[in-house]
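Q: I'm writing up a methods section and want to include an example of the input and output format. Could you take the sequence below and give the corresponding predicted structure tokens, formatted cleanly so I can copy it straight into the document?
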Amino acid sequence: MTQAVRFSSFGGPEVLEVVEVDDPSPGPGEVLVEVFASGISPVETAVRTGDHTDHWPVDFPSGQGREFAGVVDAVGEGVTRFRRGDEVMGYIDRGAQATYLAVPEAQLVRKPISLSWEVAGSLYVAGTTALGAVDGLNLGAGDLVVVTAAAGGIGCLAAQLARARGAEVIGTTAEERFDFIRQFGITPLEYGPDLAARVQAVAGRPVTAFLDFLGGGAEVAAELGVPASRVFTTTDWAAVEDHGAVKLYAGDTIALGRIAQLVADRQVRLPIADVFSLAEVADAYRQLDHRDSAGKIVIGMKLVDYPGQKVRGARGLREQDLTIGVPTPHERMVVEEQVPPVIGDGRARQRRGPAEDALGNGTDAA
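A: Here is the clean output for your methods example:
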């Protein structure tokens, strides 16, 4: 039997459950994928809570999640690009958080060998959306862009892509994330009131684009004199309907292949904030909703042990939680070339304390 995340009513993470369903079979043109990792995103929270059902309709019981990476288990009639054992990454409309998926061949690409499962499984939504934003704005030298939630998965990638094209980026985040986003060349500003005035104080010139991955930024963009056609958002339908902002959507397999290769070549980096097991899916969304993590949060169907790992399964702790964020004596360095392909500081859970993490009862970070 396949394990899959389902919800049967609108609500918070508490409505999520992991159920057993019949194993899917690949039809003509489809590929059966054993899923290893699946990323989560704020849009899924908006869908599950029933925000804007006119735009995001839901039929109960509903699956959750769009992106995944895994290994081909079988192929249906007419499939020519993949065979059993191939490592792939891709997307579906909804329901990616499951141990097995039947996926149209056209919605899959080969996973670059240098991408970890955590990155590959959480790259589609953030990566193709960020790429679409930067392409849509045609950013380049001379542009000054404000990116909200700049430490998150989409914001971090969009900022890096904008910087790679010569644009200057101001990013909003929590104060404890300032050093994290500085390593990508982003000028940090803290969340809070009077954002337009604070942007103007550090900018020194007009803002030419506004990427709002937090929501509620359309009025700030207007104060900064940014035309509505250059204000992009992922979840703020009010900004689209009332202010004329542009709604961003995830892209296709061509875009996924482009961003996957950029990450594989280390031209940009996708931070991984934390990895949760499938059984911990509700805790993963609680952490996401708290908006307090650097990068993407991932559901790991198969939590992978790495060479040299010393901590395995003890009260839910992972080695990263015990080692990252612990100060050690060293000379100050420029960290740009020191960041590994998968990064994250692990402090979101440490701030809550081990008792809450072990029980899964605390207010989780984003």
